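Much of what follows relies on a compact textual record of a protein's fold. The record below shows the convention in full:
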Amino acid sequence: MTRRLRVHYYSALLRCEPSFFDERKNSAGRLTARLSGDCALVRATLGEKFALYVQSMISLVVGLALAFSRSWRVSLIVLALAPIMVAAGMLENDAMNHGSDGAASEYETSGDIAAEAVSNVRTVHAFSMHATILSRFEAAGQRAAGPF
Protein backbone atom coordinates (compact mmCIF):
# COMPACT_ATOMS: atom_id res chain seq x y z
CA MET A 1 0.00 0.00 0.00
CA THR A 2 2.87 2.38 0.79
CA ARG A 3 4.42 1.63 -2.60
CA ARG A 4 1.14 2.39 -4.37
CA LEU A 5 0.80 5.64 -2.45
CA ARG A 6 4.31 6.69 -3.45
CA VAL A 7 3.66 5.84 -7.09
CA HIS A 8 0.41 7.85 -7.13
CA TYR A 9 2.05 10.78 -5.35
CA TYR A 10 4.97 10.78 -7.76
CA SER A 11 2.72 10.51 -10.82
CA ALA A 12 0.68 13.44 -9.51
CA LEU A 13 3.89 15.45 -9.17
CA LEU A 14 4.84 14.64 -12.75
CA ARG A 15 1.47 15.94 -13.98
CA CYS A 16 1.92 19.32 -12.26
CA GLU A 17 2.50 22.47 -14.27
CA PRO A 18 6.11 23.71 -14.34
CA SER A 19 5.10 26.87 -12.48
CA PHE A 20 4.12 24.67 -9.51
CA PHE A 21 7.81 23.92 -8.89
CA ASP A 22 8.80 27.59 -8.99
CA GLU A 23 7.36 28.21 -5.53
CA ARG A 24 9.78 27.74 -2.64
CA LYS A 25 7.38 25.45 -0.78
CA ASN A 26 7.30 23.11 -3.80
CA SER A 27 11.04 22.73 -4.29
CA ALA A 28 12.58 19.38 -5.16
CA GLY A 29 14.00 18.81 -1.68
CA ARG A 30 10.74 19.48 0.10
CA LEU A 31 8.73 17.33 -2.27
CA THR A 32 11.24 14.50 -1.96
CA ALA A 33 11.13 14.71 1.83
CA ARG A 34 7.34 14.65 1.75
CA LEU A 35 7.36 11.73 -0.67
CA SER A 36 9.39 9.61 1.71
CA GLY A 37 8.16 11.00 5.04
CA ASP A 38 4.41 11.16 4.46
CA CYS A 39 4.26 7.69 2.95
CA ALA A 40 6.20 6.26 5.88
CA LEU A 41 3.81 8.02 8.25
CA VAL A 42 0.83 6.41 6.54
CA ARG A 43 2.50 3.00 6.80
CA ALA A 44 3.17 3.51 10.51
CA THR A 45 -0.39 4.68 11.13
CA LEU A 46 -2.03 1.78 9.33
CA GLY A 47 0.35 -0.82 10.66
CA GLU A 48 1.39 -0.85 14.27
CA LYS A 49 -0.72 2.06 15.52
CA PHE A 50 -3.94 0.64 14.13
CA ALA A 51 -3.27 -2.74 15.75
CA LEU A 52 -2.54 -0.99 19.04
CA TYR A 53 -5.80 0.95 18.77
CA VAL A 54 -7.83 -2.23 18.17
CA GLN A 55 -6.08 -3.95 21.07
CA SER A 56 -6.84 -1.01 23.37
CA MET A 57 -10.52 -0.97 22.43
CA ILE A 58 -10.87 -4.71 23.03
CA SER A 59 -9.07 -4.37 26.38
CA LEU A 60 -11.43 -1.54 27.35
CA VAL A 61 -14.56 -3.54 26.56
CA VAL A 62 -13.32 -6.68 28.33
CA GLY A 63 -12.12 -4.62 31.31
CA LEU A 64 -15.48 -2.90 31.65
CA ALA A 65 -17.31 -6.22 31.44
CA LEU A 66 -15.14 -7.71 34.18
CA ALA A 67 -15.41 -4.59 36.34
CA PHE A 68 -19.20 -4.51 36.14
CA SER A 69 -19.39 -8.22 36.94
CA ARG A 70 -17.32 -7.73 40.11
CA SER A 71 -18.60 -4.39 41.48
CA TRP A 72 -21.01 -2.29 39.47
CA ARG A 73 -20.86 0.67 41.90
CA VAL A 74 -17.08 1.11 41.64
CA SER A 75 -17.32 0.58 37.89
CA LEU A 76 -19.80 3.44 37.56
CA ILE A 77 -17.48 5.77 39.48
CA VAL A 78 -14.53 4.85 37.25
CA LEU A 79 -16.74 5.23 34.16
CA ALA A 80 -17.78 8.70 35.34
CA LEU A 81 -14.10 9.71 35.58
CA ALA A 82 -13.27 8.31 32.13
CA PRO A 83 -14.09 11.54 30.18
CA ILE A 84 -11.56 13.44 32.30
CA MET A 85 -8.88 10.86 31.56
CA VAL A 86 -9.74 10.92 27.84
CA ALA A 87 -9.57 14.73 27.75
CA ALA A 88 -6.18 14.69 29.47
CA GLY A 89 -4.91 12.15 26.95
CA MET A 90 -6.16 14.26 24.04
CA LEU A 91 -4.42 17.35 25.42
CA GLU A 92 -1.19 15.43 25.78
CA ASN A 93 -1.50 14.08 22.23
CA ASP A 94 -2.13 17.57 20.83
CA ALA A 95 0.91 18.92 22.64
CA MET A 96 3.09 16.11 21.26
CA ASN A 97 1.80 16.54 17.69
CA HIS A 98 2.11 20.33 17.75
CA GLY A 99 5.82 20.12 18.40
CA SER A 100 6.42 17.55 15.67
CA ASP A 101 4.73 19.66 12.95
CA GLY A 102 7.37 22.37 13.18
CA ALA A 103 10.16 19.80 13.18
CA ALA A 104 8.78 18.18 10.02
CA SER A 105 8.79 21.54 8.27
CA GLU A 106 12.39 22.18 9.28
CA TYR A 107 13.43 18.70 8.13
CA GLU A 108 11.81 19.50 4.78
CA THR A 109 13.85 22.70 4.68
CA SER A 110 17.08 20.84 5.37
CA GLY A 111 16.17 18.28 2.70
CA ASP A 112 15.54 21.13 0.30
CA ILE A 113 18.96 22.64 1.03
CA ALA A 114 20.69 19.28 0.56
CA ALA A 115 18.85 18.47 -2.68
CA GLU A 116 19.62 21.87 -4.18
CA ALA A 117 23.29 21.64 -3.23
CA VAL A 118 23.66 18.15 -4.68
CA SER A 119 21.82 18.98 -7.88
CA ASN A 120 23.94 22.13 -8.32
CA VAL A 121 27.21 20.67 -7.07
CA ARG A 122 29.22 22.27 -9.91
CA THR A 123 28.00 25.72 -8.93
CA VAL A 124 28.75 25.05 -5.25
CA HIS A 125 32.30 24.04 -6.17
CA ALA A 126 32.76 26.94 -8.58
CA PHE A 127 31.90 29.54 -5.95
CA SER A 128 33.42 27.66 -2.97
CA MET A 129 30.08 27.65 -1.15
CA HIS A 130 30.72 24.45 0.85
CA ALA A 131 30.85 26.14 4.23
CA THR A 132 27.80 28.33 3.54
CA ILE A 133 25.65 25.42 2.40
CA LEU A 134 26.79 23.30 5.33
CA SER A 135 26.00 26.05 7.84
CA ARG A 136 22.50 26.53 6.33
CA PHE A 137 21.93 22.77 6.50
CA GLU A 138 23.12 22.57 10.13
CA ALA A 139 20.98 25.56 11.12
CA ALA A 140 17.87 23.92 9.68
CA GLY A 141 18.73 20.71 11.54
CA GLN A 142 19.17 22.62 14.80
CA ARG A 143 15.79 24.31 14.38
CA ALA A 144 14.20 20.91 13.75
CA ALA A 145 15.80 19.42 16.87
CA GLY A 146 14.43 22.23 19.01
CA PRO A 147 15.83 23.84 22.14
CA PHE A 148 16.50 20.54 23.89
